[in-house]
Amino acid sequence: MSEIHGASSSARAPPVATAPSTMALSPENALFNKYEVGKLLGCGAFAKVYHARDVATGRSVAIKVINKSRLNNNAALVNNIKREISIMSRLRHPHIVKLYEVLATKRKIFFVLEFVKGGELFAKVAKGRFSEDLARRYFQQLISAVSYCHSRGVYHRDLKPENLLLDENGDLKVSDFGLSALGDHVRSDGLLHTLCGTPAYVAPEILAKRGYDGAKVDVWSCGIVLFVLTAGYLPFNDPNLMNMYKKIYKGEFRCPKWMSPDLKRFFSRLLDTNPESRISIDEMKLDPWFRKGYSEVKSESVGLVKEEERKLQDLNAFDIISFSRGLDLTGLFDGKFEASEDVDRLTAEEQPETVMEKVEEVVKAESGGLQLRKTKEYGMELEGQNGDFVVSLDVYRLTDRLVVVEVKRKAGDATAFAGLWKDKIRPVIQRRPETSN
């Protein structure tokens, strides 16, 4: 199995940068016998990105190569990579870079991505500010993609010109979902709490460290992007990072005199330091400056389903990778990193509702104050006496006949639950139903 030799690692290099050169490998020596790998396109702190050609179809792709040895037991980076795979594999929108597949060898991980040959939007705006009409076109495409993500419970949290690419038609594509959050990352207060993002684009409520709405912080970052496109510089900037944060927190910025009154008014809503009164995406679409020439973009039917709408999750190929013992995402990293939560999974030849019934029967038969709370149709939480442990149990359909049962420790001591799971619940789930002669 071939690898790209000499590739350093990165989870956050740009997928593309310049036009490709002649292919470096012949089909018989292609990566995984599938991709002829060519010119190096971009380099980041943890990855290199190459242009490649799909041998079977002739399609150009970008391959992001992450060298496992360079991760240096960086659990946070590993989690970012897993999150990026999980999110990008299920997002399909004309203005979002597609992830076609993820491949791995003993030493490297390969993201096979849509090839977007126009490079970063940042490189284009660095040559000079855009007209309002051109900036509006890019901004409308950005908002279309961000709105699609939000409708599926995905919050990017690192929107900036470096993560926005341009295709051969000059259309925008959002990339780099390594810092994204999903709806199920929201805490009980309904907010996200992880501090992340690029300093000049970070929303003031993130700096306040009191929790934030993922949709609202993405809107703020989109506002910063639009300001850079139309003004040619950042609205909040200072060589001293703390001074810059103070300006962001206070909302101290000035629009240049050449901006139209409608755009200046639009910025007052986009860069409102109060997330409660900051303009929403739905409100944007009614704004006179934004809606000029705007039309909704149709996305593909594939997409993440909001948690509250999901009755039973039918697993796609990426889900199967993440749940299978032999192929799970932790295996991409040679098992060097422990998961942030204790977790066990098993497959069973059973229907989801039957698994739930079996678990409920075991719980009812147990003494010792074990409590059960249903969290969705095929999901529950189990809590031990005095809260000495809390675990979640979720059932996912793998095929018409197979399910995956996942148990995660959410709080307390995992060993307090281990015996009950190993000796009573797991055997009951895996017990095959009796058949009559």
Automatic annotation (TrEMBL):
What InterPro entries does UniProt report for this protein, alphabetically? Kinase-like_dom_sf (IPR011009), NAF/FISL_domain (IPR018451), NAF_dom (IPR004041), Prot_kinase_dom (IPR000719), Protein_kinase_ATP_BS (IPR017441), Ser/Thr_kinase_AS (IPR008271)
Question: Which SMART domains is this protein grouped with?
Answer: S_TKc (SM00220)
Q: Which residues bind ATP?
A: K64
Cofactor(s) needed by this chain: Mn(2+)
**Taxonomically, which superkingdom?**
Eukaryota
The protein here is known as: non-specific serine/threonine protein kinase
Q: Where is the NAF domain?
A: 310-334
- Taxonomic classification: Eukaryota, Viridiplantae, Streptophyta, Embryophyta, Tracheophyta
Q: What class of enzyme is it?
A: transferase
GO molecular function ontology, one term from the record: protein serine/threonine kinase activity
Query: Where would I find the Protein kinase domain in this sequence?
Result: 35-290
Q: Which GO terms describe its biological process?
A: signal transduction
Q: Which CDD domains match?
A: CIPK_C
Q: Which family does it belong to?
A: Belongs to the protein kinase superfamily. CAMK Ser/Thr protein kinase family. SNF1 subfamily.
The scientific name of the source species is Salvia splendens (Scarlet sage)
What EC number(s) has UniProt assigned to this enzyme? 2.7.11.1
**What Pfam families does the record point to?**
NAF, Pkinase
Keywords linked to the UniProt accession:
ATP-binding, Kinase, Manganese, Nucleotide-binding, Serine/threonine-protein kinase, Transferase
Q: Report the catalytic activity.
A: L-threonyl-[protein] + ATP = O-phospho-L-threonyl-[protein] + ADP + H(+); L-seryl-[protein] + ATP = O-phospho-L-seryl-[protein] + ADP + H(+)
